[in-house]
Amino acid sequence: MCGIVGYTGPRESLDILIGGLERLEYRGYDSAGVAIVGEDGRLRVRKDQGKLQALKDLVAKDPVNGNFGIAHTRWATHGAPNQVNAHPHTDQTEHIAIVHNGIIENCDALREALRAKGHTFDTETDTEVLSHLIGEYWDGTLEKAVAAALRLVEGAFGVAVISDLDPGKIVGARKGSPLVVGVGDGEYFVASDVAAILQHTNQVIYLADDEMVVITRRGFRTQTIHEIPVSKEIEEITWELSQVEKGGYDHFMLKEIFEQPRCIQNAIRGRLDDDGWKAHIGGLNLTDEELLRHERVVFLACGTSWHAAMIGEYMIEEYCRIPVEVEYASEFRYRNPVIDSKTLVIVISQSGETADTLAAMREAQRRGATALGICNVVGSTIAREADGGMYIHAGPEIGVASTKAFTSQVATLAVFTLHLARLHGLSDEPARSLIHGLRRIPEQMEKILASEPKVADIARHYYHHDNCLYLGRGYNFPVALEGALKLKEISYVHAEGYPAAEMKHGPIALIDENMPVVFICTKDSAYDKIKSNMQEVRARQGRIIAVATEGDTQIQSLADEVLYVPPTVDALVPLLSVLPLQMLSYHVAVLRGCNVDQPRNLAKSVTVE
Ligand code: F6R
């Protein structure tokens, strides 16, 4: 989604702003721009559609210099992704410039009210309306005008605003769209994502909804949009710069696939107890008695996180024997869900900012449920607003296609399941094998990752196909969904995931020699059944790629290609069986010439409904 960076300090701002935008490229965008107040005291805006290079070419031809400014990468919502609609937008006097993430829901009404006062608009964007509204309230102090305008806004915003009439100052504000303030040495930043400023500082302040910050090179001040002062803690980011760099890999996605063994170590570190075969989790904010009082679990998530939630459902039902439901966050919030104080809601979100997931969590809390968050981004809105939860500790995930966050979510869910299951009376033996299984996952993942050349070879045989079916049963059904999602989002190949036995209820009609079918058929309780599904595909000349358990020689006679994963307990199989599928999607996408890290139309964190 859109990205924001702002800088004020003694240095030349252009390179800092463009550098920050580069770090935000991964979030997905279709145009970019900067607004800088030059040494002559004049506000200048440069913006263009397309990739950042277009903006860099523009500022090379028509430079802008000055030591305070704001910048933006836009992912179009209101109006086409063209130069005119790109941010920053200015007010009617062209003295105020704004960059904005989010959607202003009452922008039509505001536009009409401003038109009645004589304003004319050049763009179709909601952001231009906001810039004019700020201009309308201008009385010499930028934060006053911004606060007055934002009080009239319905919807979501993360904004950064500057004016050449109030020099050296940046006003930032947020509601439903993230904004952090970077505190440097005699210089200050605002950004929608810490990745944009990590190179300069690891000291940050997270704004809450309806809060604003006013920064100058001399310091910062925080208040609400109702102009009530608030004091904020400065927090330290533990992510390192190397984590937001490619580190020798061709793409972030590949780097993140290979980081997974370390991520799993981080997700389970300090959380497993070999003495009592149980888990220790800080941060749930629920006593054992309170946890046990919950009679059912509802997971809320979107996309890949929803797939992880499905695995969580299977785990909790198997080990804790309590009912679990998995809901698409977007559906949940507009139904009339049955939720009460005995429902434990678990919200899964890598970014912690997904608009649908956040809204669904708030709705569940409003109905009396306790909500736990399983997030990656520390300090994200879901992490802060949840009643408790667990971080997955995957480190920054830059590739738009989620890989390491998925496996870290699954590992974290396994830890949580163990904790809850022991409270529900799970015996020592299954608890012990879960712990042993989890501890072995990193080394087993390394082994699978070593088969990357073989996966790349298989990709070369299949990359020209435009369709693909993914089939799995039990714990491997969500893996089939995840494998299909990975392929379609980065290589634009149409892919579907199905429970293998469902194939004969419809998708079997698609099977012929042009339909590769990926079977995730590791040796588990559904193994014999899935072999018959493979026979059914074979009988119709379908081409089969199998993900099977090491040592399974029977599978070779059923499949055209076999990728092996080491054996583990059923509940942990997804942690291994998804790896070959991630690598396969990656190589297919590369062979098809796709932009792996920034697939078309997609955004890393979906902060609009
Ligand atoms: C797929 C992907 C998306 C996200 C989804 C939820 O690779 O990345 O499907 O999983 O947008 O995002 P979070 O987990 O940030 O809430």
TrEMBL record:
Q: How does it assemble?
A: Homodimer.
Q: Which residues are the active-site ones?
A: 2, 604
Q: Name one Pfam family in it.
A: GATase_6
CC annotations in GO = cytosol
Known EC number? 2.6.1.16
Keyword match Repeat: yes
What is its EC class?
Answer: transferase
As for subcellular location, the record says: Cytoplasm
NCBIfam families, per database record: glmS, PRK00331.1
Under which name does UniProt file this protein?
Glutamine--fructose-6-phosphate aminotransferase [isomerizing]
- Could you give a single Gene Ontology term from the biological process aspect? amino sugar biosynthetic process
Query: What function does the entry list?
Result: Catalyzes the first step in hexosamine metabolism, converting fructose-6P into glucosamine-6P using glutamine as a nitrogen source.
Quote the HAMAP family the UniProt record gives. Answer: GlmS
Q: Which PROSITE patterns match?
A: GATASE_TYPE_2 (PS51278), SIS (PS51464)
Q: Per the database record, which ranges form the Glutamine amidotransferase type-2 domain? A: 2-218
According to UniProt, the reaction catalysed is: D-fructose 6-phosphate + L-glutamine = D-glucosamine 6-phosphate + L-glutamate
According to the UniProt entry, its GO molecular function terms are:
carbohydrate derivative binding; glutamine-fructose-6-phosphate transaminase (isomerizing) activity
Please give the superkingdom of this protein's source: Bacteria
Q: Return the InterPro entries for the record.
A: GATase_2_dom, GFAT, GFAT_N, GlmS/AgaS_SIS, GlmS/FrlB_SIS, Ntn_hydrolases_N, SIS_dom, SIS_dom_sf
Annotated SIS domain ranges read 287-426, 458-599
**To which species is this protein native?**
Eiseniibacteriota bacterium
Q: Which UniProt keywords apply?
A: Aminotransferase, Cytoplasm, Glutamine amidotransferase, Repeat, Transferase
